[in-house]
Each structure stands twice: as structure tokens, then as C-alpha cells.
Design brief:
single chain; Rossmann fold; Dna Ligase, domain 1; 14 helices; globular
Amino acid sequence: MQNQGQTNKNFSFSDYLTEGFYDEMFDANGQVRAGYEVFRQRCETLTPEELLRRQQAAERALMAMGITFNVYSEGEGTERIMPIDIIPRIVDAMEWNQLERGLIQRIKALNLFIHDVYNAQNILNDGVVPRDLIESSKCFLKPCIGLKPPKDIWCHITGTDLIRGDDGQWMVLEDNLRCPSGVSYMLENRELSKQTFPESLARTGVRPVSDYPTRLLQMLTHIADRPNPTVVVLTPGIYNSAYFEHSYLAQQMGVELVDARDLVVSGGYVRMRTTKGFQIVDVIYRRLDDTFLDPQVFNPDSLLGVPGIFDVFRKGRVALANAPGTGVADDKVIYAYVPRIIKYYLGEEPIIQNVRTYICGEEEDCQYVLDNIEQLVVKEANEAGGYGMLIGPKASKEDHELFRQKIKENPRNYIAQPTISLSRVPCLVGEHAEGRHVDLRPYILYGDDINVIPGGLTRVALRKGSLVVNSSQGGGGKDTWVLY
């Protein structure tokens, strides 16, 4: 990858190693991919010291902006900065257009699926998805049976995790339809790119993401029952891991950030306490899980919810995004059936394939997982954030045995997938570039239409050799440049 005429004083990718992984910036022959050429040229006009200064300036800016997240694991501090790497991930227009079509197809099918399982249950009656799989799901909420949310939309905001394997093909790793987080990091990473590489960003022709809050508010307004609706963001509170994002999005949309203490059900409506008295709330973008929403219906011990809110929602007097019950499609076991779900409702083959998935609740799959656990990634059905997961090739024999026992005790709660060598993007490590594994979480809004934001949060496993990209597990973020 030697750049002709390059001086030793300037930064160079000449010693960058792809090491047999699919690399987003360089092909297998070491040639820079077309979308990265402008960026590569710009980097190689800078010294390593200057690039490092820009990286450090971005990190200081994150800290100054208060872009942090909370972690709860033992021995960790309460609050941490969300790490960023300033080398972007670039996706060309043709690839993105294909992803966009695939994500729209997937969300359309999943929304029909959620509506069906809480109403006619045709897909269960026809045996396409096993009934006991739905009824045993922790996220299948019986109070939602017969529910019809505004405009029949359940999953208003989705963050779908995508990966590439060794062959460069995109695959869906999992669906996040409850309270997907990370969009604030996508927005702030773009602002940092504007400060760090303004010329490259302009010359490369990158689609904007900064209108996300406007699009989000338009979607929330669309599902309201009244014109000029009052919209709020409902947060569990300051100790939630994504509290920064809750406050950021409320501020960007120009709406109130509220917690349970600010809302009350009165006279058949949800009302917000204000300095001028109580005000009717029309739309709630809720950032707490379903079962904490209403202690009268779900978890009676919840102090985060609003008593009576579910009944108001059922009567159509307040809209909730996402609708309660969407988590049934978040279940990692249901994920394995999504190709069949797409075929059933749309009569189409999936545009983006799933990762091959073994369902431990099925006897043959379960035996395969128990016999080959050393080569597989095992996941709990309803965990997130990298928790409840075993990466077989990197785990100890003791951990293998522990998970074997867990699977035997509750096979319904586990799936397994092959260990996939995620694609890599160069990251700045000191004054040179090293490859780190990444995934991509695009954000999809479902209002009057289904809109895929052109970018998303590229999550990066900053620890060398790690495949775990979650921020709670040592991961960070990159800006994602989608080209026109």
C-alpha cells in the first residue's frame, strides 16, 4: 500500500495490515476502496502527531459535551465517556441503497408480525412460527392482546444491527425494537467529523444525518390523534445508561423531557405537570421498557411508570412510541424466524440475510450447540448490551460447561450462531492505524412512511482482537459516511 512520493514525515497507511479479514478501507490486494480515496489522500497530508492531536481534540469535545453513558458492572465507575475513533466508516451509494431496501422490507414485515400475534394470530394458526415460542417469550405481553396502536404502527423507532463477514456480504445480526439507543452518538460523531475532517467530508459527498431529530418529531406528530400535539420524551431518570441521549433528543426536538413524577392520569388522559397547571400529553416517546410503563398492568413494583397510562393508550387517547409489546419481535429466538416472517407477510425472499442461527429450543439444534459450543457464539434470548453471551473460541472450558448447563436447564432461552470474523476498519492507535472489528446500527423511523437514516452508529471493538462492540464491554463508535 505504499503511496508513491510519500515522505516519512507524513502519516501513511503503508504498514496497515488487513490480516485476512474483510477490510472496509482496503481490498485484499491492499488497494484503497473507491469511497475512501479522498479521505486517504487527506490523512497522508498530515503528520501522525497532527492526526493524534485531532483524535485527542475529539475526545475532549465529547467530554465537554457530556456525552457519557452509565455502566453498572461491578468495579466500574458510574459514568464513562463514549469512546470515538476519528477514522470514519464509508459506505458507497449502491451498497447503501440495497441495505435501505432490505431494512424497509424487514421493518414492514416485523410490524405486520407484531400486529398479527396480538390480534388475529394467523402466523401462529398456520404454524409458520410455533405458538409456544410466542407464548413463552418474556416479551409477549398478554395485556396487549387485541391492541391496535395509532395508524397500526408498533415499531416506530428501530435500530437493526448489521455486520459483514469474511466475504463482505451484509447480514442482520439482531433487531432492536424496544428502546434502541445510540442515535445521539451517531449525531455527535458527525459533528465531530465536521470539525476534524471538514474538507474530506465536503469533497467525498456524504449524506447528512443531522435532520434526524426533525424526522423523529415528524414521525411522533404523525401518530398523534390531535393537530399540534404535545410530545414528550419519557425517561427512567438520570441513572439510566442512556440518560444523556434522552435529554439530548428532547432538547434537539424542542420537547419536554419528563419522568414518572411529571405525569399523571386524570380524566381519562395523560397530563403533564407544568407551572401553569396540568397539560394533556398526546405522544410519549418512551425510553423505558414495557414492563415498567404501568405498575397497574405490568410490574406492580415499578416506580418508573405512570399508573393508568396503559388504559389511556388502549383507548387511543395517548400514543406511545414504541408501542408496548414490540419486544416480542426483539426476542433473539424470534429473530431466527424473520426470513419466514418476511416470506409469510410479503411473499418475498429477504434482501438482507440473517446470520445462521441454531435454536436451542429445537432438539437437533440444541444437540449441535452442546457438541460444538467451543466454536459458537451463544446468546440469551432477551439480553442486550453484550451481556448473557458466550464467545466460544475465546471462552474458558469452565465457561463452556457453565453455558452447556444453562442451555440444558432452559433451552428456550438460548440461540447460537457461528463465530463470524466481523469486518474491520482502520482505527488510530497511537500514531499509526490498526484494524478493529465493527458492526453497524442504522436507525429506521416508521411514520407516514418508513425512513432509513443514511448512516447509523458504527460500533467498534477497540480492544485488539475483540469481537464485542458494545460500549458497556469496551467498545466505541465511528462516524458512518454514506455516499450520494
